[in-house]
Amino acid sequence: MARKFKTSDFNYDLPQSSIAQFPAEPRDHCRLMVLDKKSGNLNHVKFFEILKFLQEGDLLVFNDTKVFPARLYGTDKKSLKPIEILLLSKIEDGLWTSLVKPGKRMRLGSKFVIGNQQNQIHGVVEQVNDSGSRIIRIDDDSLIYKLGELPLPPYIKKSVGTSDNYQTVYAKHEGSVAAPTAGLHFTQNLLEQIKLKKIETLFVTLHVGWDSFRPVKDENLENHQMHSEYWELSDEAAIKIKNAKNEGRRVISVGTTALRLLENVADISGGYENIKGGTGWADIFITPGYEFQIADGLITNFHLPKSTLLMLTSALSSTEIILDSYKVAVTNNYKFYSFGDAMLII
Q1: 0.85 exceeded by pTM
Q2: Which of 128, 180, 197, 259 is the most exposed place for a label (fewest CB within 10 A)?
Q3: Domains of the chain (ranges plus CATH)?
Q4: Contact by Cβ (8 Å): 50, 344
Q5: pLDDT tens profile 56-71
Q6: pLDDT in tens, 85-128
Q7: At what angle do helices 319-331 and 308-316 cross, to 10 degrees?
């Protein structure tokens, strides 16, 4: 009988000093822990040495989403006190699902203004959701790119220099509130070396939502509701995936976001044999016991305790093996989270 996991099964102790505040420089010189997902055996190398563990014919799947300046600072028109808005997803022009701080100032009907005398966005709260998020209407979407800031994760306490530090070198399609952080370790030079080794690559798009940083609060995993994230898969990408699986070649996802897209598409298609290009919304919640249909391996960072991403990572190997590897990482001073070091699980 399959074990029934609880949220607390994915907790672990992490010193504050282990949380990376700055990206590695160069990007591909962070540390890489290579984990055999079945035996738990570990190798410790630098990220640019990842080619030693990849094979000719492997298919690497990258998420080419781009973070947009989703954090806005403004003023509540009634109290004239400051507010902060994080745009989560666009419903239609001028209408957004968002998080707001402080919530008590942003009740139903509350009006606000963002910006300065030269550039201003005016808005109103149209709906308060049960989750605590808001649906807001604003009068000028175009000014978001002038007035907004990249929404760095809450555990990053300092500036990271240029905004490019929080974008992958292949970022293309704007729509994420968080970077697909496993991809931050790749440089153009490393991508060229991957091609030279005849490792196949493809790019998919999944716009990352705030769930990436949201711990699961209910002890019963069945009660956790994933937020939907928009995805796009081209016909060409679907063919590459099917060919790799049919030929017995490994499909390795660069990040949990690309992996969720792959498995969501396989799930709704009735197996990888039937997948084709398209768009949709992914809310798949992968926990141990899940049978992967496409992904054979994963490149990922070290994730928050009790997070859905740690649960997904554990599903690809085992909870015991992953948590043991995390203990080794803490002991050996690996850095965790968005700007931290990486794992290759194969």
Answers
A1: yes
A2: 197
A3: 8-67+162-345 (3.40.1780.10), 71-147 (2.40.10.240)
A4: yes
A5: 999 999 999 999 999 9
A6: 999 888 999 999 999 999 888 999 999 999 988 999 999 999 99
A7: 110
